[in-house]
Give the backbone structure.
Amino acid sequence: MKTLKKLIILTILCCSAAQLFAQKASWIWYPGDFDIYMSNVMQNRRTERGAFFPVFWKMDSHYVLVDFHKEFTLTQPEGVKLSVEGTYNVKIDGQAISGSPKSIQLPAGKHKLSLKVYNQAHVPAIFVQGKTVVSDESWLTTFEDKEWIDASGKTSDKSGTTFVSAGSWNLNDPNQVPSQFKLPVAPQFAVKTEKVNHGAISDFGKETFGFIKVHGLRGKGRLAIYYGESKEEALSVDKCETLDNLDIDLAQKRDSIMPLSKAFRYVNVQSENDVSADSVSMLYEYSPVTERGSFKSSDAELNKIYDVAKYTFHLNTREFFIDGIKRDRWVWSGDAYQSYLMNYYSFFDAPTVKRTLLAQRGKDPVTAHINTIMDYSFYWFLGIYDYYKFTGDQKFVQDIYPRMQSLMTYINGRKNKNGLLEWMPGDWIFIDWADKLSKDGEVSFEQLLYARSLETMALCAKLANDTNGAAQYDQQAKELKAKIFQLYWNQSKNALVHSRIDDKQTDNVTRYANMFGIFFDYFTPEQKLAVKENVLLNDKVAKITTPYMRFYELEALCAMGEQSYVLKEMKNYWGGMLKLGATSFWEEYNPEKKGTEHLEMYGRPFGKSLCHAWGASPIYLLGKYYLGVQPTAPGYETYTIEPNLGGLAWMEGKVPTANGDISVYCSQKEIRVSAATGTGRLRFKSKSKPVVKGGELKEISKGFYEVTIEKGRDYSVKYSL
């Protein structure tokens, strides 16, 4: 009887395992195509005062005819269900099956299943599900039609066609076609409503994003909805950035949901004629990422800064990482690069990083910089290697490497007679939003990013097994770095000058190239100290007023061990926004502005974004430079933990990785660490010899100690700060 019970249980478990295996099927497509398609859909949702507002750059499209195939070896015949978005044919071992079947029978043995799909409107995609035959990223795809049946009846590829691994977003429902993909929504309600003119203004309590729902709508006439990140904006019917106008003819009450999502805190609903509405609520739209990273400390204001930064970042994490939820809602490469770094210390959502990188790059041939901005092309390269460093996903680097090559070929073809980059027709040199920031001539900041991108190309070429390319990119990077210091370093100023015009250095020194040179580790120790004193801590050098470049300025100072200074700066800068009532962090903050001046930008009274991804950088700074966790080998195979309180009494938090979290607690007397991945090195200073529980202590220099951290174990250190 016991044996029979065991057999029954084993059978149930085997059936369950088979069912789970079968559920691993997902929709697949040519890699990058759905990313490009969905980014086009998302970015073309932008409106300003009801008018469509398209992007500034060329938009690519998907391939309309795609071949999918995979070889299987089956021990027994297998029934397979097919779902396809598009017009398609099916072949088994090169032999076409009549019609467009919804299911097929694969015979036992080794066979090749092929589907060719045409779809002009949407991305050609397939979902294949059998017991063992399932569609996933192991399938091969091509957009070229060069495979045919030879005289022997066997399929052959006589043209050298390149087949690449399929793309996927892990969309696992065969009944939900990819083109209908939408982010989830949840109902939310206003916290306060007050009558205004012929309607009412509703306050949802904080910055939010989604679809307004009007309840009990009735009458004939017009209903106007004015959105505002601030109350002033929502009340400004003539100047608010976004609005909806509805022509109503309803005899009976009805609820209505707006077709486009908007960013707002306040919603001002005004009616004309006999139109009326009972109330408004919203459907909050969000990306279903998991909040894994955390930070908490002895400083309540810093904790609030961290929480608001995380909320800001989550709002700007959508199908892709976007810049801001009110205005652009576009995939800007410079903004996205910072989002990747914040993501590694919060959600650790690798798929959103990958699809953002693929969407930004688009298709060959390359005809312009990413977003038309020179520096934004360079951030794209940097984002790919960082992705590998944090995730260890070498396959993605190998898959995207050809697109890296073609973009770098385009950039290399735009060098001037000095082998440097400068503005050319069609380019936009951005750097930062700053008054009187010169973009003329050969700007040092662009050359620095160029050199780093070439170093990235050399590293990625090795991962893609391109030995010759690795050597060429490495040599090019070394030559450019040497040229940068030869042409831009000014010994009397102890800094890199901002630019060269007519082959001569300008007198201008800005923070940009100098702070990047620090965390790129391009300077000697002596040069780093000189730059810190003469540039970063020098009030005579023009200050930075955007969170975008404050991100890098504070990173450079943290890399120099200035955590105490940076903590004060974070509290002044981000705390300054909180004191003005911010519920998410802004595109720009200048403490010298007053009142509604804080809402102005681009010559418009409400042009500024009050929820901008680049405003969330404390997430990254606190994880990397205070908790002190960062990988030293891809995917956190090895890593370091170097806690720095920066004046705090205590702090604790988690840093996520692909294989689990790294937890850190640090006070002025104790450090506690546990990790679910890799091998770490806990490093810290102590005035007296520490006492370690759970590991061995090693003194690597006078007063500087190290403890090896193995996964799955808890460590405690008593020390003297």
